[in-house]
Write a structure and sequence with these properties.
This protein has 131 residues and is mainly α. The protein folds into two domains: 4-66, Orthogonal Bundle (Arc Repressor Mutant, subunit A); 73-130, no CATH class. 48% of the residues lie in helices and 6% in strands. The protein has five helices and two strands, in the order αααββαα. It has helices at 4-19, 27-34, 38-50, 75-83, 108-124, and strands at residues 54-57, 63-66. A two-stranded antiparallel sheet has the order 1-2. A hairpin with a 5-residue loop joins strand 1 and strand 2 (63-66). GO terms for molecular function: DNA binding; DNA-binding transcription factor activity.
């Protein structure tokens, strides 16, 4: 299950993409259009800026904008940034050490298949597909 942070992050990015503007879009406008608390969106937007997914500017003409074209964002990278790994089990996480049960584990092939299906699905979807 994905958190509201991930779902709202997608909504922020979709909203920014729909504006088709070279100007910064005020967060209060996004909050109104998306019917989400501006306070909560501030937390999510800061995380998106930190991850390089959007740019922010403060001041009178401040707000947020995409850092690249909508077709250059995968849904997977957005969810990955907000949630962390897609790995359904610890032994499939990036930089996981050798699992002591890898030689006898009867479920690893199932987890690996699920992981690849999920990852390929979300990384195969582009932000532009959601517009």
């Amino acid at each position: 299950m994905f958190s509201t942070k991930s779902r709202y992050a997608l909504r922020i990015l979709i909203d920014l993409a729909q504006q088709k503007s070279d100007d910064f879009i005020p967060l209060k406008d996004i909050a109104e259009r998306q019917d989400i608390s501006k306070k909560y969106l501030e937390i999510i937007a800061k995380d998106l800026v930190k991850g390089g997914l959007i740019r922010g500017a403060s001041g009178k003409h401040g707000g947020y904008m995409l850092t690249r074209a909508p077709e250059d964002y995968s849904v997977g990278e957005i969810i990955d940034h907000m949630e962390g790994t897609f790995a359904p089990v610890v032994c499939l996480e990036e930089n996981a050490g050798e699992c002591p049960r890898s030689g006898v584990c009867k479920t690893i092939s199932m987890w690996t298949e699920f992981y690849e299906l999920e990852r390929n699905f979300f990384y195969g979807k582009k932000l532009s597909d959601l517009l």
